[in-house]
User: Which sequence fits this backbone?
């Protein structure tokens, strides 16, 4: 997008658009990373939307009650992890259909937060604002986008390279991948497959919970029902879009953020260059495009497919 | 070899395992009070048909299953194994028939997964060198051939310090020349003080390899720790062992009948596969009605892709496949080919559907979008009857059948199509002796009225069934051997290993295709 199509868009506007774009991607990114970790271990968790909502409410409630940012974030992570634990119990221990269990978790999260959050609707609470990083925040354009953000946004930016490195070069990453690719081979090698799957699912839940807390404490501070507005589903699309790679998820998440920022920009300019429904559908359309591309090439299929044992129940005695 | 005073490294006493029912006499008694002793320095062959309980016994030794009763002792001390990890710690490693490798990971990563630590290609290369097992640590397992995967599995166990090495049907994926290498490796490993167990149902293979033999039949040990008899050329009385395994006489395997071949049914011209370089290329041959033509090759030489192309599942890059003058491809001529795929539980049947439903799936009904359940059940019952399949009936689920019975059912289903070409891929892999002879008989019968194309990794099977045997090596037909020639087996073996036929072969022109 060049500057002139926005009619007098200056550097200052561009900087603030960049800031909005990066900020808007945070919740989707955190949830997507969590889902990548769970899916690389072999557990499909479609409960992201529910875990986002539970994290958002728990984080907001704890923040409002104590005013302590750490407690608020801890409560959000715990709420997400607990919800994921429920899913892990059904999926990993009992071996029920993971699609159903995950969808149930999404519905449960939406319903439960709707009821429990009634008294907190519109209540004032803790706000976690931007933490500019001294000199870096003054860089032109990029400074605002990358170095003048809330804490969880930094986490979302940093986690991609960290996870990527962990998958590639650490024992733990290897074990996780082995559980998702061939659980019985991992088990034969002495890996406690079900424990790893529990751990990864709960880690994913904790990240989704933090993503939710970002929404209720930083992005649009306050609680309202259905606050996540489908970002959990976008995150699931993002995992497939990223072909289960954290760094590609970062790119996808930022793209999603840019689309959101574009919606803002159109609203303030009063001019819709692209219809808003098009922007909203874009993440899903892009995911379908990536899926089609990957399927069309045997090489891509081999290197960018889903984990071979994704969603498959593992029990040591068959 | 061992002296009679050596105590066993591992001894099992009265091991029993029952499946399917927790109380009473229900279910299947897979192992019934089994005794077995394993000695250091000794290669022990465990013989038995499929379903005899070999795998159950070895799964208990390697910690995958816990015995219902009985005890194990390692160097005299009681041993209780609750997981494969515990067995590995005790020094017992098992190489399963289906390898426990993560295909998406590299050789070094698979080693690290098993042996601990972060992946280290350099250390992996050193380890491979130390045990004389050639492997490139950076390659992904998905890119390795079966022989290499097996070496990686063995290396994994060695890296974990295995003193007892159990191999389940280790030769079923190997070329004749690779089998020699495997046995040499195992002999060396046993010489270093390890106990090696070979699980097999192929009698001729133990002659060259084993020091001791035990035989399981229907869950019972019917012969235990029989030492090699130096007076016999094979080491054991093979006919007696075979009788112990099967418990009854086998129908004799007659040599393939020589018939005058009829008209050419299958014509393959200049066929090249997809990929760069192509997975197979310059494939030319013809198969006539009443003839069985075999394509053999070690896994990974292009026969999977070639079979898929010949069966019309994949499109070739160039060249043509014709049956009775009609081209075979993804959209054409599929009704001319009856196809028995290698993967009985994947490509051939849907495990969770009934036999009748599986039959309906692969046959196009006369009523368009609808089908008659009753007609399906009737056809399934006919298939069950035609090849004497042991199944509870047309409503049995495919996964409930044993490998041999499911294979017979699939064969019967395909034969019922009365297609001019029968394409059979690895028809007896993993089947017991009796089922093998029944499947072979059915293929011979089919060859009386149709052209049969057999794709197999087993040269003995190819020579037993086919009149001509083409050997596929690195995607090309390395030579075509007349199965009646006295040195046919040697020549096929040499061609499979890429050594050339070492004699006049029939040449590509005689294969019916030539440019």
Assistant:
């Amino acid at each position: 997008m060049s500057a002139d199509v926005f009619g007098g868009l200056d550097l200052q506007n561009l900087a603030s658009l960049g800031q909005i774009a990066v900020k808007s991607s945070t919740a989707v990114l955190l949830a997507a990373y969590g889902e990548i970790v769970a899916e690389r271990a072999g557990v499909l968790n479609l409960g992201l939307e529910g875990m986002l909502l539970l994290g958002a409410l728990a984080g907001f409630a704890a923040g409002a009650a104590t005013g302590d940012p750490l407690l608020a974030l801890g409560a959000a992570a715990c709420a997400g992890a607990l919800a994921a634990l429920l899913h892990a119990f059904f999926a990993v221990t009992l071996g029920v259909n993971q699609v159903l269990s995950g969808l149930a978790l999404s519905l449960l999260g939406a319903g439960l937060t709707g009821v429990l959050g009634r008294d907190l609707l519109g209540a004032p609470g803790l706000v976690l604002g931007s933490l500019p990083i001294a000199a870096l925040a003054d860089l032109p354009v990029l400074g605002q986008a990358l170095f003048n953000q809330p804490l969880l946004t930094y986490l979302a930016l940093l986690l991609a390279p960290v996870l990527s490195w962990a998958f590639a070069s650490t024992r733990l990453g290897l074990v996780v991948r082995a559980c998702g690719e061939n659980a019985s081979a991992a088990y034969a090698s002495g890996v406690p497959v079900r424990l790893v799957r529990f751990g990864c699912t709960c880690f994913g839940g904790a990240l989704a919970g933090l993503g939710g807390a970002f929404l209720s404490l930083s992005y649009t501070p306050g609680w309202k029902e259905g606050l996540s507005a489908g970002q959990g589903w976008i995150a699931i699309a993002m995992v497939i879009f990223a072909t289960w790679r954290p760094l590609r998820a970062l790119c996808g998440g930022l793209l999603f953020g840019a689309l959101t920022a574009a919606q803002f920009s159109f609203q303030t300019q009063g001019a819709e260059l692209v219809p808003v429904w098009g922007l909203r559908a874009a993440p899903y359309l892009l995911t379908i495009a990536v899926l089609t591309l990957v399927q069309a090439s045997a090489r891509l299929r081999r290197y960018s497919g889903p984990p071979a044992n994704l969603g498959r129940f593992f029990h040591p005695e068959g | 070899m061992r002296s009679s005073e050596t105590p066993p490294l591992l001894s099992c006493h009265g091991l029993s395992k029952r499946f399917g029912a927790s109380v009473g006499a229900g279910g299947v008694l897979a192992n019934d009070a089994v005794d077995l002793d394993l000695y250091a320095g000794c290669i022990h062959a465990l013989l038995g048909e499929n379903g005899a309980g070999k795998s159950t016994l070895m799964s208990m030794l390697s910690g995958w299953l816990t015995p219902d009763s009985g005890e194990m002792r390692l160097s005299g001390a009681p041993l209780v194994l609750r997981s494969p990890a515990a067995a590995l710690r005790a020094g017992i490693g098992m190489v399963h028939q289906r390898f426990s490798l993560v295909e998406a990971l590299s050789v070094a990563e698979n080693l690290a997964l098993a042996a601990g630590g972060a992946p280290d290609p350099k250390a992996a290369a050193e380890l491979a060198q130390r045990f004389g097992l050639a492997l490139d640590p950076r390659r992904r397992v998905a890119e390795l051939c079966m022989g290499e995967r097996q070496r990686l599995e063995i290396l994994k166990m060695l890296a974990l310090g295995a003193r007892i090495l159990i191999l389940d049907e280790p030769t079923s994926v190997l070329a004749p020349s690779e089998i020699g290498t495997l046995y040499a490796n195992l002999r060396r490993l046993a010489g270093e003080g390890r106990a090696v167990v070979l699980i097999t149902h192929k009698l001729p293979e133990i002659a060259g390899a084993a020091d001791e033999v035990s035989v399981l039949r229907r869950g019972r040990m019917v012969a235990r720790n029989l030492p090699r008899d130096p007076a016999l050329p094979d080491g054991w009385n093979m006919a007696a062992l075979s009788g112990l395994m099967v418990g009854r006489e086998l129908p004799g395997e007659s040599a393939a009948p020589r018939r005058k071949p009829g008209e050419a049914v299958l014509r393959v011209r200049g066929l090249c596969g997809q990929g760069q370089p192509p997975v197979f290329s310059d494939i030319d041959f013809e198969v006539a009605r009443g003839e069985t033509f075999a394509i053999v090759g070690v896994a990974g030489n292009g026969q999977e892709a070639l079979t898929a192309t010949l069966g019309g599942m994949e499109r070739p890059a160039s060249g043509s496949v014709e049956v009775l003058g009609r081209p075979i491809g993804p959209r054409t001529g599929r009704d001319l080919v009856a196809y028995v795929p290698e993967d009985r539980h994947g490509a051939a049947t849907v495990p969770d559907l009934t036999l009748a439903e599986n039959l309906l799936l692969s046959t196009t009904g006369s009523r368009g979008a609808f089908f008659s359940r009753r007609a399906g059940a009737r056809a399934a019952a006919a298939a069950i009857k035609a090849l004497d399949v042991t199944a509870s009936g047309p409503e049995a689920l495919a996964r409930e059948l044993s490998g041999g019975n499911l294979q017979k059912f699939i064969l019967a289903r395909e034969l019922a199509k009365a297609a001019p070409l029968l394409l059979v891929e690895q028809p007896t892999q993993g089947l017991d002796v009796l089922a093998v002879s029944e499947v072979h008989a059915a293929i011979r019968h089919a060859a009386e009225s149709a052209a049969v194309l057999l794709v197999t990794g087993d040269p003995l099977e190819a020579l037993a069934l086919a009149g001509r045997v083409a050997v596929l090596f690195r995607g090309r037909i390395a030579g075509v051997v007349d199965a009646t020639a006295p040195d046919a087996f040697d020549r096929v073996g040499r061609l499979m290993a890429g050594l050339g036929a070492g004699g006049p072969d029939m040449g590509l022109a005689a294969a019916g295709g030539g440019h």
Remarks:
- DSSP finds 17 helices and 20 strands in chain B.
